[in-house]
Amino acid sequence: TEDFKLIKVIRGHEGEVRNVRFSVDGSKIISVSSDYTVRVWNVASGKQIQVFQGNRGWMPFADFSPDNVIAVCLRNQTIELCDIQSGKILMKLEPHNHSIYNLNFSSDGKYIISSSFDRTIQLWDIESGKKIKQFEGGAIDISGVQFSSDGQKCLSFTHEAISIWDVQSGKRLRQLKAHSNNITCAKFSPNDEFIVSCSLDTTIRIWYIKSGRQFKKLEGHTNAVNEAKYFPDGQTIVSCSDDHTVRLWDVKTGEELQKLERHSGPHHVLLIKQFEYGSDNTLFLKKLDESSSDKKKQFIKFISVSS
């Protein structure tokens, strides 16, 4: 894996780092931790810009808008839109009857969708702060949601299936029974023509959105695949797994291009659960040292990937 190079390590969280996001311009990241905080970092300096404290007992979630406002879910059923520099709360949305699990800004920053353990998806207008639409997800908790890049569709996934929705009408366009075990992630391709999904069944699958047919099945991981997503050019998929590897895949051929591997020993176990990338193909990994009793050792790693 000589094509991977460690660029930077950011330390500061006192618990496991569960989620990370780059800002649209790539200059900042937000990280979410089991220390019940959401933190904003300057990528170039590695310095912390802001910290938002959540409630004990509830894992927060966060996402960047295109204009660098962040949406944070710190208190179960409430989404707060916050200014990064001041930390000031600009608006509160209280959309759900149960704990919020995931949220996503539209690419133009005008809307937010959120999913919840109340088994609904809520669509919000940011300017007015009003709920526009509610999508009924069914009888199973909705694990994740994402807007398509054109904002016309959104997807949601449960552990059993992926649903594609028309944003304007609220109609479910298609449902994919995608894997032989629980689904862990689903994402649109940059051109909105495909969906990539991954699962506890160790596979990554690419789906045609229009037909619902499977385009490719990517095999190579030997344990649960936690996340898979497209690079911005749409030609490469990156995945991470409980087999302690991050892998790059060629979308057209389905072949594995690169593998970043960390061997585990009796005193150290590395599980890569989630990642993000910047516009310069920087891959941003979350490191979880399960064996460490010192929570202050939790940190974030930047890896560069050759194009």
TrEMBL record:
Highest taxon above the source species:
Eukaryota
Q: Which UniProt keywords apply?
A: Repeat, WD repeat
Gene3D superfamilies per UniProt: YVTN repeat-like/Quinoprotein amine dehydrogenase (2.130.10.10)
Any one Pfam family match given in the protein's UniProt record, by short name: WD40
- Cited InterPro entries: WD40/YVTN_repeat-like_dom_sf, WD40_PAC1, WD40_repeat_CS, WD40_repeat_dom_sf, WD40_rpt
PROSITE patterns in the cross-refs:
WD_REPEATS_1, WD_REPEATS_2, WD_REPEATS_REGION
Return the WD repeat spans. 10-51, 93-134, 176-217, 218-259
Q: PANTHER family, per this entry?
A: F-BOX AND WD REPEAT DOMAIN CONTAINING 7, WD40 REPEAT PROTEIN
- What's the protein name? G-protein beta WD-40 repeats containing protein
Question: What organism does this protein naturally occur in?
Answer: Reticulomyxa filosa
